[in-house]
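>> Question from a student workshop board

For tomorrow's exercise we were told to take the sequence and the ligand below, predict the bound structure, and bring the output to class. My setup keeps failing. Could a helper post the expected result so I can at least see what it should look like? The ligand is 6-O-phosphono-alpha-D-fructofuranose.
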Amino acid sequence: MVCGVKTLGQFIIEKQSDFPYAKGELSRLLRDIGIASKIVNREVNKAGLVDILGDMGTTNIQGEEQKKLDVYANEQFIAALTSGGECCIVATEEEDEIIHIESPVSQNAKYIVCIDPLDGSSNTDVNVAVGTIFSIYRRKTIDGRAVLEDVLQKGTQQVAAGYVIYGSSTMLVYTTGKGVNGFTLDPSIGEFCLSHPNMRIPECGYMYSVNEGNYGHFPDGVKKYIKYCQVEDESTKRPYTSRYIGSMVGDIHRNLIKGGIYIYPTTSRSPNGKLRLLYECNPMALIIEQAGGKATTGFERILDIEPTELHQRVPIFIGSKKMVEKAEEMMLMYTEKSPAENKVADAKLNDLGVVGGID
Ligand code: P6P
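>> Workshop helper replied:
Here is what the output should look like for this input. Compare the format with yours to find the bug.
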């Protein structure tokens, strides 16, 4: 214990006994990610002071402008995972294809890391919280060079998942399938220290996070859920508060602590949703489920989706269990219904106290 607190390193070793088959590899992998996070944190914190803001003048496979800071973050995580020797493939938002880690120390590496090195990076220029999201799998193939099949695994197969939030403080939150624990970086000793043991998301919250600018392009079920959130009803503490900061890690971290729901549904511009399954939705879904919450596409559990493509996008409804269930109820009521069926659904919704039409 460093000055009375438990560091991430000590915690990981203490929990190593949770993994009979792991001989410390997963522990070292989590350590490598922690180290890279501290290096990225240093640059994020001084981004305004050095020429690391702004655009690289390049775009990633998503067609998104690459910020200097997310390219830097991508390089740091790949370097840390390469030198750590436990990772054989990195799938990152910033690279079109999977990256094979081939170094003398990675010959017997068993782990796959899917990562969004700096989610919400467009916020770095305006000092809003950004984050790193990571997901860890064991490779499925036994020997030889790992392949794409080792990466395209369902979210239920993750051995660990986590995020780092670079906000008013820097926190690393992760799960290995046995609960969720949060560590706050103490800059004075350069260590992530256990600050939020056994995190649980409130079963019901009073905040909803969605980009209402896309309202006109939302499915009817989402429109109805937003209206439900806005109705005056003391017994359910509605209207809820709308909070959306344009950074998934920031919105979901707040909802994990205070309760709430984050929704990125299909829209006309993003017919499959915007968020990526492998390195955004799956890791956040595992964390939130482990904390007692729920994560679905509005119809299907995120973790059960069989991935088909590396940068596959899915719609996501994630957060407090009862809030996600209410949103799912609306999605079922209003999906592909005829006007007549919608009238029946409207009548039901009125019984639920949601008045007023969709638009
Ligand atoms: P929009 C950031 O680009 C991100 O991937 C998430 O972190 C964030 O919640 C969302 O996209 C914001 O997207 O379309 O609302 O600006």
